[in-house]
Structures are given as structure tokens and as C-alpha cells.
């Protein structure tokens, strides 16, 4: 028992989740959904779920779509942080956040209960379904025991009162305690071209700290360099946790030989259905040296997330994205989750630049937000540019005879040209006429 404390402010990003630990295409969230569905679930593609029924044990609410159910960490990540996890390595926090080795560390729950619970312990929150209270509090205690997390005095009192009171005597099997992972001195990653205050600096360092990108041998990250498709494959494979999988003996792409530098990563991308390449005579091409465009990046991240059910509503939030555009749904999904907000072009208008190349700093931001959580979602268009300025009405040309060629202002003109019109080289309308102070014919401005 110990009071809650932490050596640093809570950082949800230090608990990397969800990951595909076994490399079967389904990350931790989907593994829980498959396991806890009360009706058969069909898994297709890269873990797209069809069918399934989920009953939230916290309140009895029923969901028929993965989009309508959340996965709850029985010990909330913030609670774990205050109970000792702030001192853990990132690897141990990652293992905790994706713990599938016991059936009670993660559970499918309604968003209503999940948000109501937040980071509260049993002294402050219990399921509204009282029939589940004993199982919930028992699971809480077992997970804390398994991960050697502390309990504060009020939390302990609540657990003891519930388990020794209404729950009565029960026999339980203690789980295997997860031993603390050895901590090795780590030199923080630094890049000579990534400085404090620059855009996406934190996202770049997050990428580096997790080994997704190590930069170049000269110590640079090159944030403004475009990302090639083969490098993108490597980044996504590492983002998934570098899962074990059976590497195909023959390449899925004509232009990627089996001895290619990133053959494993590219073939993994293909086996997960994240990329299909281009159809050509005799097979498919991956085009590894091409730069990846922003629309293709959206498609990769959407498929990486399991191609979740999503139907865009309302108008496009981007001025340069129409409903007929390639990867329209994938880009709208990215925007709705705040993974990409595009660029502000004024008057509430935004551009996505779908055919622009993805730069390395933006790639870091995309991956960070896809894993940790996005910024403010961009759901639909709010573009209201001002009306274009009215073009001035051109002056009405006087009716009369016009001399061909240019005339010189103030020059004498012939008697036979009296009353005629002409233009100076600068476009000023002139007329051959006299004035009240000069009876001679001259070209004078009208």
C-alpha cells in the first residue's frame, strides 16, 4: 500500500497500444473483440470483423458493431502511471497496455461506462451492473498483483470491504507476476537537424525513442525529405512492433527481389493487405523508390487500423478533396480522427494536398496521432471564402472616329482630324481639339 504518486506528469503516449503482437493482422483491440463476442465473428482482410455481438459487462448495453464498443483497461493507464508505472520502461508499459495473457486485464465495454469510469479506482467507481461488481473488483486486484502496482489506502479499503462483504468467500488463482524488465542505460536519441520548438519535434522524437526511425549515420533525421515507399513499409512494420511472421519465399512484387533491403517489411505490408501495389503485365509492382503520396498514406493507415467501418457525412473538409477523389473515404477517416488536419488556407478553408509527397516530419506526426490519438477532428467543410471582388465596369468608349496608331499627348494634330479620338502609348484616351486657352488643335486627354 502506498499513496498515489508519479515522477512525471501522466503521458498516455508512453503506453504504446494497440499492437499486433502475433503478426496475424489483428491488433490487441481486435483480439479482445474476437474473444469476447457472444456470436460468431468473421475475420477477413487485415482483421475486418463482420458479425459479432458484444455485451458490456459494466452496464449490460449491447453493441453489434466494433465501432460501437470500446476496450477498457481494467486498471486505467493513468491509474497504473500513478501506481508505479511512471517508473517503468516503455517496453514494460507497452506489455501492460496490451496484456492478453490473462482474460481479465482488458474487456469490451460501452463507451458510456468507459467514459464514466475514466481513471477512477473502485473507491470512486463501480459498474452499474451490480451483478458484475465482485468479478470487476477481483479482476482489479489481480491485475494490480500481476503487475506489482501499488494501492492507495482508500482504494484498499474499498477492495477489502467489497470482497469480504457482499462477495463472500471465493477461491481464486493468483496470476503469474510479470517480472520487471531489466533497465539498461539508454542514451536519448538526438538529431542534429531537429531542434526544440520546430514543428513535429515531439512526434519525431517519439518515433525515434520507439525505434521506428533511427535517422541517418551522420546524425540527421532530414525532416523535410520525402518518404519512399520502401521506407514507409519499414516504418509501418516497426510501428506494429516488428511482428514475427512467415516471410514468403517468393516475392509478391515483380520489382522487389527476396534479397531486397526491406523485403521482409514490404512483404509483411502485402500479407496484411495494407498495400496491393500496381497491376502490370505478369504480376504486381510495388515501386519501392517512388515517394509515397499523402492520399496513399491515408490508405495505408486506414488499412493498418483494420479498415474500420466509416461512412463520411457532410461536405468534404478539404477544398481540394471531392467525393470522387481516390481514397476519399480513407482521407475523411483520417481527418475525422484528427490524424491529419491538412493545411489552413484561410476563411475556414483547408487543403489536404492528396498528391503531395509525405515528408518525414509529417510521417512522424501521422504515426504518432494514429497510435496515441489525434488532434481536433476535422469532420466536414466550414469553408466560407469572401465573394470575389467586383470587376470595375470598363468605361464606355465615346462614339466617333478613331485614328489608327498611337498619338502623343500635347502634339499638334491636323485640321482634318479635328474631333477624332486616339490613344497614347499608355492607353490614355485623347482627342484632337482646342481649349479655352489655346485655339490650336492638339491631342488632349479626354
Structure description:
This is SLH domain-containing protein. Residues 187-250, 251-315 form the SLH domain. The protein is an alpha+beta fold. The chain is 26% helix and 13% strand. The chain has three domains: 12-164, no CATH class; 201-372, no CATH class; 402-445, no CATH class. The chain contains twelve helices and 14 strands. The strands form six sheets. Strands 11-12-13-14 form a four-stranded mixed β-sheet, with no helix packed on it. A two-stranded antiparallel ribbon has the order 1-2. A hairpin with a 3-residue loop joins β1 and β2 (48-51). α8 crosses α9 (263-271). It starts with 27 loop residues before the first helix and ends with a strand.
TL;DR of this structure?
It is built from 12 helices and 14 strands. It has 446 residues and is α+β, with helices and mostly antiparallel strands.
Amino acid at each position: 500500500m502506498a499513496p498515489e504518486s508519479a515522477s512525471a506528469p501522466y503521458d498516455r503516449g508512453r503506453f504504446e497500444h494497440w499492437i499486433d503482437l502475433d503478426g496475424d493482422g489483428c491488433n490487441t483491440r481486435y483480439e479482445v473483440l474476437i474473444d469476447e463476442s457472444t456470436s460468431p465473428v468473421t475475420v477477413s482482410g487485415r482483421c475486418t470483423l463482420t458479425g459479432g455481438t458484444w455485451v458490456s459487462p459494466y452496464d449490460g448495453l449491447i453493441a453489434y458493431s466494433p465501432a460501437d464498443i470500446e476496450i477498457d483497461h481494467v486498471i486505467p493507464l493513468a491509474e497504473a502511471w500513478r501506481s508505479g508505472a511512471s517508473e517503468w520502461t516503455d517496453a514494460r508499459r507497452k506489455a501492460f497496455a496490451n496484456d492478453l495473457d490473462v482474460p481479465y486485464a482488458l474487456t469490451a465495454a460501452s463507451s458510456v461506462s468507459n467514459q464514466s469510469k475514466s481513471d477512477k479506482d473502485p473507491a470512486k467507481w463501480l459498474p452499474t451492473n451490480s451483478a458484475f461488481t465482485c468479478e470487476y473488483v477481483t479482476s482489479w486486484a489481480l491485475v494490480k498483483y500481476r503487475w506489482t502496482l501499488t494501492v492507495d489506502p482508500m482504494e484498499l479499503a474499498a477492495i477489502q470491504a467489497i470482497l469480504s462483504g457482499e462477495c463472500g468467500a471465493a477461491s481464486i488463482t493468483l496470476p503469474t507476476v510479470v517480472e520487471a524488465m531489466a533497465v539498461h542505460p539508454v542514451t536519448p536519441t538526438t538529431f542534429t537537424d531537429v531542434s526544440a520548438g520546430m514543428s513535429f519535434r515531439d512526434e519525431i522524437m517519439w518515433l525515434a525513442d520507439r525505434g521506428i526511425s533511427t535517422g541517418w549515420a551522420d546524425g540527421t533525421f532530414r525532416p523535410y525529405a520525402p518518404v519512399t515507399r520502401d521506407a514507409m513499409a519499414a516504418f509501418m512494420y516497426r510501428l506494429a512492433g516488428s511482428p514475427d511472421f512467415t516471410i514468403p519465399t517468393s516475392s509478391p512484387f515483380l520489382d522487389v527481389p527476396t534479397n531486397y533491403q526491406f523485403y521482409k517489411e514490404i512483404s509483411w505490408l502485402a500479407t496484411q493487405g495494407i498495400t496491393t501495389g500496381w497491376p502490370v503485365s505478369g504480376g504486381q509492382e510495388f515501386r519501392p523508390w517512388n515517394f509515397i503520396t499523402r492520399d496513399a498514406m491515408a490508405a495505408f493507415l486506414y488499412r493498418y487500423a483494420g479498415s474500420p467501418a466509416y461512412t463520411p457525412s457532410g461536405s468534404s473538409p478539404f477544398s481540394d478533396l471531392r467525393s470522387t477523389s481516390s481514397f476519399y473515404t480513407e482521407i475523411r477517416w483520417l481527418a475525422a480522427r484528427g490524424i491529419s488536419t491538412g493545411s489552413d488556407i484561410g476563411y475556414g478553408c483547408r487543403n489536404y494536398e492528396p498528391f503531395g509527397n509525405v515528408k518525414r516530419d509529417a510521417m512522424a506526426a501521422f504515426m504518432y496521432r494514429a497510435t496515441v490519438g489525434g488532434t481536433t477532428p476535422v469532420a466536414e467543410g466550414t469553408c466560407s471564402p469572401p465573394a470575389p471582388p467586383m470587376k470595375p465596369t470598363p468605361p464606355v468608349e465615346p462614339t466617333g472616329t478613331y485614328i489608327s496608331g498611337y498619338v502623343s499627348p500635347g502634339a499638334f494634330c491636323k485640321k482634318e482630324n479635328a474631333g477624332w479620338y486616339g490613344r497614347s502609348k499608355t492607353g490614355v484616351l485623347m482627342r484632337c481639339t482646342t481649349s479655352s486657352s489655346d485655339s490650336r488643335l492638339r491631342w488632349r486627354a479626354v
